[in-house]
Design brief:
The complex is a heterodimer. Chain A is mainly alpha-helical. Helices cover 72% and strands 0% of the residues of chain A. Chain A has two domains: 40 residues, no CATH class; 236 residues, MetI-like fold. In chain A, helix 6 packs antiparallel against helix 12, helix 7 runs antiparallel to helix 10 and helix 15 packs antiparallel against helix 16. Chain B contains 14 helices and no strands. At the A-B interface, helix 1, helix 2, helix 3, helix 6 and helix 7 of A face helix 1, helix 2, helix 4, helix 5 and helix 6 of B.
């Protein structure tokens, strides 16, 4: 059986050698960028330093994981990462679907186009610019919000020193940045609804709210569910750029804003604890994989069509 | 009956317009604040804060930037170089991959697609990835490492495969094969021309990612010669913040720090090209997202 498979492979290689050749660059890319670095998972079990290299650094077993566990860091990171993602996924999708419904019902084509262009704008700017935006609005000395607050006769608010504000602010800016993109996804589904359905409903005397309730929402529900399910698979992966550019190395805010990805980046680049960084990253990857496989298995049992793989 | 229907629709329309206008304004205002800041005098920002309309019009922010423009021009060059080279190379690789993975006669297409998709599920993490490029390949401080890691993304491959399936019917490829065309010929002469919209879409996604990248510069730079534009801006902001903190503690006044208006002018210079171009290329992104959404 196995010999047969090998035989088939060689036969295919001979027959489709041009196609295989065309896959060479992409193979090289994923080997270098993704598959070979997996060997480096070994770092997680060492006290890694660059001088001794990959296999020369002292082996410490599970000590890195033990530290992460005992110092409660792992708990805080996991909690933050998952909670943020749950809110991002649910609230993000609801907002995107809501805006898509509104835009789809507009009759003025021109207005439709202009709003879509404006709402899409934040998607095109970098996270560095996002950090500038947040800073302009919320910094203590000359932020716009504090300008308004002091104008009304109150004391300025120290946003950058108060962890409690940031879950809301980060969520807001995440949704702000992705609204245009997600709206297009839902618009694609809404545009797929045949016009006849709407016309028939209008003839039957359905008003606009009834049409939303009985035609549009049932139609976008599958998209909503699929996007939700796919997103659950990535619930352990944090939005590194978002958090790092907004919070940076401001230790005052870590309690509510530190996620796995920012922690890995920080311990690896500033305190050079590569073993610890790899350990936290591995924990994230394995936990994430287990989640995806479980979710996929559950979907497959319900509906084979929807499964990811 | 008829009138009642009309009023409810009327109220709904007003509400819709209201919500959409407010949302649009929220999406655009932050950029207006940046632009306004870049045209304000530094003193007015320090004394009265940021505002929507410059409190005291001034070009000093831009003047300071262009007076010592060497670093910025360098960073602009690095970013343009990475964007052009990375987008072109990435596009060719993605197109070839998408083509091969959509060929029915290619027995291993599903297995290879899964291997590409699997990289989004599991990985070694940041540290081994970094070690691969800097330690094993020794690319630290080069320009190559700024664009190499961004060449291919699983999402683009899936998108390209969908584009190929949609625009190159199997019958046409079969007919060309019967006429004696090889796979490479079919790819270059038949697939590439009909794939133009797909290439434009994925090319723009790639270009946007390269233009907005700061991460690879921050990971792999040894000096400012390989700073991308975004990372140049990032450094300018953070250096100023750090220095301000130290100066405040020590009670010294530092005068030649990047001023607030200068930072905003820099932000405008960095994002300007994207904001000028995107309204015209938006439709390619929309078509890409729509196709990706159907078969994510």
């Amino acid at each position: 059986m196995k010999k047969n498979g090998k035989h088939l492979f060689i036969k295919d290689l001979k027959k489709n050698w041009v196609l295989w050749l065309m896959l060479m660059p992409v193979t090289a890319f994923f080997l270098i960028n993704n598959y070979l670095p997996m060997v480096g998972i070994y770092f997680a079990f060492t006290d890694f330093n660059f001088r001794d290299g990959l296999f020369g650094s002292p082996f410490v077993g599970l000590k890195n994981f033990e530290f992460l566990w005992k110092s409660n860091i792992l708990w805080r990171l996991t909690r933050n990462t998952i909670l943020y993602n749950i809110v991002f996924i649910l609230l993000g999708n609801v907002c995107q679907a809501f805006m898509a419904i509104l835009v789809s019902l507009l009759s003025c084509k021109r207005f439709k186009k202009i709003t879509q262009t404006m709402i899409f704008m934040p998607y095109f700017t970098s996270y560095v610019i996002l950090s500038v935006v947040v800073y302009n609005l919320f910094n203590y000395e000359n932020g716009l919000i504090n300008g308004i607050v002091t104008n009304m006769g109150h004391e300025p608010i120290n946003f950058y020193g108060t962890p409690a504000y940031w879950p809301f602010l980060i969520t807001f800016f995440h949704i702000w940045k992705g609204l245009g993109y997600g709206m297009v996804v839902y618009l694609a589904t809404i545009l797929g609804i045949s016009n006849e359905l709407h016309e028939a409903a209008i003839v039957d005397g359905a008003n606009i709210l009834q049409r939303i309730k009985y035609i549009i929402i049932p139609h976008i529900k599958p998209t909503f569910i699929i996007l939700l399910l796919y997103a659950i698979g990535g619930i352990m992966r944090g939005q590194f750029q978002l958090f790092y550019q907004i919070v940076g190395n401001n230790g005052l805010l870590f309690e509510t804003t530190d996620i796995i990805d920012t922690y890995v980046y920080r311990v690896s680049t500033t305190s050079m604890e590569f073993g610890m960084g790899t350990a936290a990253g591995l924990y994230q990857s394995v936990f994430g994989l287990v989640l995806v496989v479980t979710v996929n298995w559950l979907i497959k049992r319900k509906d084979d069509e929807l499964a990811l793989f | 009956m008829k009138i009642k229907k009309a009023t409810s629709t009327y109220i709904f329309e007003i509400l819709t317009y209201f919500i959409l206008v407010v949302t649009s304004v929220i999406c655009v205002i932050p950029f207006l604040i940046i632009i306004s800041g870049s045209f304000s005098s530094n003193e007015s920002i320090l004394l009265e804060g940021y505002a929507l309309i410059p409190r005291e019009f001034s070009l000093e922010g831009y003047r300071t930037i262009f007076e010592n423009a060497k670093g910025i021009i360098r960073a602009y060059g690095v970013t343009i170089y990475c964007t052009v080279v990375g987008t072109l190379v990435g596009l060719i690789i993605t197109a070839m991959t998408g083509y091969v993975l959509s060929r029915k006669e290619f027995r291993y297409r599903n297995r290879i697609s899964f291997l590409i998709y699997f990289t989004t599920l599991f990985g070694g993490g940041m540290v081994p990835w970094y070690y691969m490029y800097s330690g094993v390949l020794g690319l630290k401080g080069t320009l190559l490492v700024l664009w190499l890691p961004g060449l291919v993304a699983p999402f683009y491959v899936v998108l390209m495969r969908t584009f190929v399936k949609g625009s190159l019917p199997d019958e046409i490829a079969e007919a060309a094969k019967i006429d004696g065309a090889g796979q490479w010929m079919i790819f270059c002469r038949i697939a590439m021309p009909v794939l133009k919209p797909g290439l434009a879409t994925i090319g723009l996604f790639l270009a946007l990612n390269y233009w907005n990248d700061w991460y690879r510069s921050s990971m792999f730079s040894v000096d400012s010669s390989t700073w991308e534009l975004q990372y140049y801006l990032y450094n300018m902001i953070n250096k100023a913040e750090a220095a301000k903190g130290i100066a405040a503690e020590a009670g010294i006044v530092i005068t030649d720090l990047p001023s607030e208006s200068m930072k905003m002018a820099m932000a405008v210079v960095v994002t300007g090209p994207v904001l000028l171009v995107y309204p015209f290329v938006q439709k390619y992104f929309v078509s890409g997202i729509m196709i990706g959404a159907v078969k994510g």
